Amino acid sequence: MKKVIIVDDEQAGRQLIKQYLSEFKDLILIGEANNGVDAVKIINEFNPDLIFLDIHMPGLNGFEILPHLNEIPKIIFSTAYDKYALEAFEVHAVDYLLKPYTRDRFTKAIQKVKWDSEVHDLSSLAENLVITKQIFSDKLLVNKNQKLILLNVDEIIRLEAYGDYTKVITSDNVFISSYGISVLLEKLDNQRFIRIHRGDIINLNKIKDIIKHGKTFEVTMINSQKVKVSLSYMDRIKEIMI
Predict the structure, then answer these.
(1) pTM of the entire predicted model
(2) How many domains does the chain contain in total?
(3) Which of 87, 164, 196, 234 has the smallest number of Cβ neighbours within 10 A?
(4) Dist. CA 156–CA 151, nearest whole Å
(5) Three-state SS string across 10-45, please?
(6) CA-CA distance, 72 to 241, in Å (whole number)?
(7) Contacts for 9 with CB less than 8 Å, ≥ 6 apart
(8) C-alpha 152, offset from chain centre
(9) Domain interval for residue 150
């Protein structure tokens, strides 16, 4: 038997999930919350195996809840907004139910928990949402002192490869992302974030100056860090200097 908690500020949303959930006898509903603060309390108290999680709620939104949890359960997001699909992927959501959804769509989400409860790729989320345009993250989930934090990408000055992980550098902090630098590059707006070296991505809005050294360039960021441009990535730098 698996323990389930529903977090949704709308009673109709919670009721629909309960109705659909009643068909799955191995899933036991042990609690509900209609705001983010109560959600943190009930999830930490009862340690569910699965939560159905809305995003826009009073107190804390669905993503802001996660850093406050002692353990992260399996998550199925249930929301009326399609623009958070990439963030759902970042926290390894099992699925992303876009309201209004059918019983069949709900059943498919439950089946994913049983058959594949690990990381789900972005393509399956996009398929479910029928996303036809490219969507970039405006936040990244990063680690700081063993806590998960949602960081606004506007704060990022540069990203630096760190083995299989990535250092995410802001003006006053260095965070660690559990994703490799190539994966993060795919999540960020390529009009703002460019790769200038195999192990370096910079935010174009955070450049202080660019100096030419022979055949290559050196970029100085607003935090005074200097990053050399690899010959393999010269074209993008030349584009912004035109």
Answers:
(1) 0.51
(2) 2
(3) 164
(4) 8
(5) CHHHHHHHHHHHCCCCCEEEEEEECCHHHHHHHHHH
(6) 45
(7) 34, 35, 54, 56, 57, 58
(8) 11
(9) 139-241
Alpha carbons 198 and 196: distance in angstroms, whole number: 7
Does 55 share its domain with 107?
Answer: yes
The per-residue pLDDT for range 149-175, each reduced to its tens digit, is 788 899 999 999 998 889 999 999 999
Digit-coded pLDDT (tens) for 109-144: 999 886 444 444 444 444 444 433 445 667 777 887
Alpha carbon distance 242, 228 (integer Å): 19
CA distances from 161 to 92, 181, 201, 237 (A): 21, 6, 9, 19
Q: Is residue 134 part of a domain?
A: no
- Apex 151 CA angle, 146 and 152, nearest 5: 175
226: domain CATH number is 2.40.50.1020
In this structure, which amino acid lies at residue 214? G
